[in-house]
Amino acid sequence: MGMFRESFFLAGNNKNRLKFIFSLMALRGIVKILPLLILYLVVLELLSARVDLGKILVLTAILATAFFVINIWDHYLALSAMKLGHKLSYDIRISLSDKLRKLSLGFFSRRPTG
Amino acid sequence: MEPFFLSSLISASVLSIFFLILDWRMALAAVSAVPLALIAFTYADRIAQRVTKAREESLRRTNSLIVEFIQGMPVIKVFNQVASRFLRFKETMRDFRDKNIRSVVSTTIPSMVLLTCTSLSVAVLLPLGLYFYFKDSLSLSTLVFFIIAAPSFSDSIAHYLFGYMHTKSPIGQAMKHISNILKEKPLHEPEADAELKCFDIVFVNVSFSYNGQPVLKDISFEIPEQSVTALVGASGAGKTTITNLIARFWDVSSGEVRIGGKSIRDLKLDRLLAYISMVFQEVILFNDTILENIRLGSKDATDEEVISAAKAARCHEFIEILPDGYNAMIGERGVNLSAGERQRISIARAILKDSPIIILDEATVYIDPENEKLIQDAITELTKNKTVLVIAHRLYTITSADQILVLDEGRIVERSPHEELLAANGLYNRFWEAQKASSGWKL
Ligand SMILES: Nc1ncnc2c1ncn2[C@@H]1O[C@H](COP(=O)(O)OP(=O)(O)OP(=O)(O)O)[C@@H](O)[C@H]1O
Ligand SMILES: [Mg+2]
Questions:
Q1: Which ipTM score applies to this complex?
Q2: Could you give the CA distance from residue B396 to residue B400 in angstroms, rounded to a whole number?
């Protein structure tokens, strides 16, 4: 995926933070499946010969907790992704201006403005 | 930049693994819609890319046309071009509007197709699952799981492709653009360099071309420290180009520029530029106060230092009588300064910077004698004990220069002080006579 390589290149010093966000995102993908699995267990229990109500209650509690955690997680992730995004674009703008200062003026006549 | 689609990708993959473990036939059915979605997606992606590109080009045209339209307003008005120019303006804007609409449409229709395709998997799963269930080859629990999980699965796939499409075109292209600039090779700079002690400037066999168009041809000359050298030549002879090479706005094509005996390529750019003050042919002032515009010369200067530079550059008198004095804004919604006043502000900048080398690219515009006198006073103040290169258009301002270089078609054809050049009766003498005749000044 060229796009990920590119983002790491652009991230420069923020590479580790970017990696952290990316792994949080990947983990979120797995965690999002958790409720489905719990639901599956509930269904299994319901279909079994002797329905154990206590077990179903416990599973429901876990399900509720899982949703709660996922929501917090999502919120945190969105927030830190946004923060990192702004920080990244700030850093990129600064390094870009620094770079442009060091380029020969010839560079500017070779490309269109805008 | 929000690649949330990464987590959708992971969800989809993990789910399909679960599917495979539970029942491979049902798993196949679940992913059967994926190839269809992929085909629809690739097609949509191709169109989206084309349309985005067209939109970006249109945006670029729009931007430059707006700048041109506003900058060129006086010319457009004077030559009575408003109507025809405005037509072109309108045309470009209409094009931009249409391209925008098309880009939105071209990305929404395919995403609708995409969503439909991915939700198809449920339609395949349910009948197939029921069939297996009634044939007793699928447990009820597994069937239920597939039906619970299938919407999430197709959702994740659609979300992934969708997010990918939306970020890839505009953001991906911007990212590529920026990366390319950051990877562009900067001007050569040394790892380390030393302070210079001496500031004579030497050109050794310097040639230079703009994009293959030769402008300077094998030029050699010397500007001794603390002396004044003037450059004279017809318009387009390459005078400004020479000053640009000293500041390394461009690098020479061949030959070498030396300051204090060292090639300027062996100096750090910041250091080199710290040694040089330039007063440009076109004065650029920023939309800021007069105080800050002068302070550009040396960003750590105190207000008192700025004001004393302004006094030395003969700016103080006209600044004082402005309503806000030094805090008057320049430019849009601010004060409008005359060419002579702008020139003196740029000289004040250079005085404030107080660098050992001064490069003056005199404005070609006509400045009234009174202002001219003030500017000359300011320049005298600026060039005291400096190594000076001055490009002069009014030759009487350089009669006292230590040496005058006469440039013709990229070569130095004469070099001497004023009196000797007159006696030599060459190109310089012709310039001199021509100016004397046209302006009729008395010497
Ligand atoms: N950025 C550029 N790209 C391409 N060609 C250029 C560029 N700048 C200048 N030139 C060309 O190089 C030649 C020399 O230009 P230069 O600006 O050095 O002339 P000049 O002697 O300063 O003229 P003037 O007295 O009008 O200021 C001209 O023919 C000009 O068209
Ligand atoms: Mg010039």
A1: 0.72
A2: 9
